[in-house]
Amino acid sequence: MSSGEFCPRCGDPVPDREEPLPGAPRDREEALCDACYFEDFELVDAPDRIEVAVCATCGAIKRGNRWVDVGADDYTDVAVDEVVEALGVHVRAREVSWGVEPEQVDQNTVRMHCHFSGVVRGTHQEETVVVPVLISRGTCTRCGRIAGGYYASVVQVRGDGRTPTPEEASRAVEIAEEYIAEREATGDRNAFVSGVEETDDGPDIKISTNQMGQGVSNRIVRELGGSVESYPTLVTEDGDGNEVYRVTYAVRLPQFSSGDVVDPDDGDGPVLVRSVQGNLKGTRLASGDDYERKPGDADARKLGSRDDGVETTVVAVEDAHAVQVLDPETYESKTIPRPDYFDPDAETVPVFKSRAGLHILPSDADDAGTS
Ligand SMILES: [Zn+2]
Ligand SMILES: [Zn+2]
């Protein structure tokens, strides 16, 4: 049976075959007889070799122009993926099946044995190709920037009229690291802390982007109180003449911190500070009443902290407003105000002595959870 057509290469008559769809050109290859067709037929189209760039520091791999985290500690799987991605199977092949076997040659070379089979022109075809995969170790953009100390913003943690406590300073750095870790966990490769400098006035935390510097500052203020202001500084111009800014976020922690005893100078006596997030909140030592002030309210002076309190003996409970205790320095009996957190059954109480007088401190338990 013949269609009356002939192979354009060898001139043999070609058996009947499905006509291409109307309007579709019958390509020259399709017109060949089977013998000529299979003469230079390749079932699989494979590159001679594949190079995979891997960051030696973080393990990211380069895909096109981008570095991506693959979370691999063994690059054989990465090599398999890259090869499978790069292989092409002939479009006319049907019932294709394939397998890939990696052969580790050395630390940086994997030979990939790829077996393919399929049906073409009704004939079973098989092909095996070997593709060497070369792993090249380098440095990704991110690790290069970290190594070079790159940063786009600095979060300066300072105190208002004081130096941050060691606890505040280390917590601020922790908050920055937590914030960045959350961003990293979402796959953001631009998130990193490129350095922390402990200055005499508090830590300077260098952050990869402006936006993250802002985020870190906001979170520090939300937790530790205070306020933040930002100051852009022109650093340089980039290659295209665009101005490149670095932003300093000046975090000012509040004047007082939780546990301070302060005197607001309003005639009602000292206050034990419970919280400084937003408004300052505390407890009046004379009465046990709540106290609250806005940032920027009239000056208050710090008298000391609750750690300065000492335990002393209760001599007598006089009435609803007064109690007698031993002055811990002179051992004289003194009548002092009775706050509502005072426990009349207590034999001893913590007291705080200052130029404002002698006052009973709440116990830690009274204090807990009241902010
Ligand atoms: Zn032919
Ligand atoms: Zn890296």
Defining key terms:
371 residues; alpha+beta; five-stranded mixed sheet; rod-shaped; binds zinc ion
Question: Gyration radius, to the nearest Å?
Answer: 38 Å
Ligand inventory reads:
zinc ion
What global shape is seen? rod-shaped
First-residue to last-residue Cα separation: 96 Å
Count of extended strands: 25
Helix content: 10-25%
What is the typical, i.e. mean, pLDDT? Answer: 88
Count of helical segments? 6
What about the largest sheet? 5 strands, mixed
Report the β-strand fraction as a percent range: 35-45%
Strands in their spatial order, largest beta sheet: 12-13-11-15-14
Instruction: Give unreliable regions as ranges.
Output: none
Description:
By secondary structure, this protein is of the alpha+beta class. It contains six helices and 25 strands. Helix 4 crosses helix 5. It has a five-stranded mixed β-sheet. It has a five-stranded antiparallel β-sheet with strand order 19-18-17-16-20, with no helix packed on it. Bound molecules: zinc ion (ZN) (2 copies). One zinc ion is lined by residues 55, 57-58, 60, 140, 142-143. One zinc ion binds next to helix 3.
Short description:
With 371 residues, the chain is α+β, with helices and mostly antiparallel strands. Helices cover 17% and strands 42% of the residues.
List the helices and strands and how they pair.
Elements: E1 5-6, E2 13-14, H1 34-39, E3 44-45, E4 50-55, E5 61-63, E6 66-68, H2 75-86, E7 88-89, E8 94-106, E9 109-120, E10 123-138, H3 141-147, E11 153-159, H4 166-185, E12 193-199, E13 202-207, H5 210-224, E14 227-237, E15 243-253, E16 260-263, E17 271-275, E18 280-284, E19 290-293, E20 301-305, E21 310-317, E22 322-326, E23 333-337, E24 348-354, E25 357-360, H6 364-367
Parallel strand pairs: 4-10, 11-15
Antiparallel strand pairs: 1-2, 3-7, 5-6, 8-9, 9-10, 11-13, 12-13, 14-15, 16-17, 16-20, 17-18, 18-19, 21-22, 21-24, 22-23, 24-25
Helix pairs in contact: 4-5
The site of one zinc ion (ZN) has 8 residues, from α1.
